[in-house]
Amino acid sequence: VYHKPIFDYVKRLEVMGVPFVPDFVIDDYPEIVRVFGGFQVRDFYRSADDDDEMEHIYKSITEWTATGTSSHERWRPRHPQLDAMLAAD
Known about the structure:
Layout: H1 9-15, E1 25-27, H2 30-36, E2 38-40, H3 53-67, E3 75-76, H4 80-88
Parallel strand pairs: 1-2
Antiparallel strand pairs: 2-3
């Protein structure tokens, strides 16, 4: 488990000791999900009776693993500039 960067996401990975670029993030910060790609979770303010967030996450990961994309409205692809930067390395 690593601490996550909260600004300059890619540059801060090394500073924070994260030895890789994540393939898929699950986070409540929309900004970090827009950069690395993944699933933006909602803040939890509801009762436990209507908590289906983990089900949405699981379905999104399963779909992304099989197809490279997800149809869920809160899934985001990796930012194109990140892909370009990684390809240049």
